Amino acid sequence: MFRLKTLTWINHSMQRATTVAAAAGGVGLNNSHSSSKLNSAAATSLATAPYCRSYSDDSSSSRTQMPFTADIYNIKRGDYAVLSDDDIRHFTGIVGAMNVVNDEDELMGHNIDWIKTCRGQSSLLLKPRNTEEVSAIMKHCDQRHLAVCPQGGNTGLVGGSVPVFDEVIISTQRMHDVISIDPLSGVLVCQSGCVLQKANEAANRHDLLVPLDLGAKGSCQIGGNVSTNAGGLRLLRYGPLRGTVVGVEAVGADGNVIDCLSSLRKDNTGYDIKQLLIGSEGTLGIVTKVAILCPPKPKSLNVAFLAVDDFQTMMTLIKQARADLGEIISAIEFLDAESMRLVTTHLGLSNPIESHNFYMLIETSGSDATHDEEKMQNFLGSIMEDGLVLDGTVASDYSKMYAIWDLRERIAEALLVDGYCFKYDISFKTEEMYDLVLKMRERLKGHCKTVTGYGHLGDGNLHLNITVDQFSKENFSLIEPFVFEETQKLRGSISAEHGLGFKKRNYIGYTKSQSVIDIMHRIKEIFDPKKILNPYKTLPDVK
């Protein structure tokens, strides 16, 4: 039975602690249907790790032994020119000798994606500082028919940000300036290489918030976020990037600048070209600047971490949360028991509550701490009275909230420790999200180490992950295309937020019709007739 009579809230921003009395029958803590507790103090035992995770690469010997992507997937190189000494001298004249990299060790971290599943063969990395230098580089590549691979923070998960063959890597890491912030309209303008966390810190100084939050916020760049139409942890509250990016500047395949860098919220003049660039993964143009609408920074944050024994109970909790918390909900996430095992075993994180089959993280954000805490209290009381929650904790102190969020955000990191990871980013109707995890566990019994499911419960986005000791074509054939076939049966999407990149491009037909794919090819032909921009990515092979 629930014996707890109070909920303690520690509010960091107000430097105070308040105790909310739980009236008998009102908050429903005396629950005869379960024997668990709701205790915010339990979060204290969690190790407080930095909230901003950096997924930068290294050049370890294990990485250098990785096979080339082209060999694994039996890809034939396109009919592109081969880099010459004259090309290198020309590029040196554009960006300077210090920003032309052809050292094999330094290139290694740019040829391999951070989840160690794709390895390219590029022998040249260029680091332009501004749009003009990107334009000059592309004009030369267009004339010479040299293929290029645009690269931001290289935190992508589908092989879109690393070369397949010897493409020239164009890194935006030196293009990192925040150009302007309009406190009145909330529009932030920055270069594409600005790290997400840096942009958010700049917005915070004006009491604003970048409406995108990712586990890789300490490394990923705004240009890459826009190029992949990244979803993230707060899409439920602020919507997709397509709705918050008001302007984009990019350099086309021929070196011409595509200037759609408006900071206006309303502009209904002709075709919206920036929407083609958003989510195009560098195949239509290299994003160089972005204007993004930033909402006010919340004054009150609360995080509830709840345990339940079955997936369907979480469907009931979502409905109740929407009814009781309404406009202050900013995130609804979940992880399964396997995900929790990985982060506690491999990363040493602590689970603040008892072990159960599923965990649900609900975050609220608003402008009135008292109002928000009261709504959270009523919600928690209601679900405990109904016997829906087996255990839980709630926090409004930043260090405790970050520690709880770590359990969700660092699963990807723990999976890398576990072994070679097959990653799938799929969207379904919310009530059908977990079905594929169960099917894969049954299908892969005896063929894998772990099958886990976690993700964005509020918008139906499942992150299905399968780990094995090492990659093999036998394991690969058991997983693909079965995962995509099952997704198609449920009318889901094979890529909810990660993009198609290299790995998923030939499976696009499981989500999009052939007529739509044909239009995509025609758009590519208009923007990039020589197909030098990020080849082998996003669009399927033409047969």
Structure description:
- The protein is an alpha+beta fold and 543 residues long.
- Helices cover 31% and strands 20% of the residues.
- The protein is built from 19 helices and 18 strands.
The residue-averaged pLDDT reads 88
Structural class: alpha+beta
Strand order of the largest sheet: 15-12-14-13-17-18-16
In which range does the helix fraction lie?
25-40%
Q: Cα-atom Rg, whole angstroms?
A: 24 Å
The number of E-state strands comes to: 18
How much strand content do the residues show?
15-25%
How does the overall form come out from the CA principal axes?
globular
Q: For the record, give the distance between the C-alpha atoms at the N and C termini, rounded to a whole number.
A: 64 Å
What count of helical segments does DSSP give? Answer: 19
What summary fits the major beta sheet?
Answer: 7 strands, antiparallel
Contiguous runs where pLDDT drops below 50 for at least 5 residues: 1-64
Assembly form of the protein: single chain
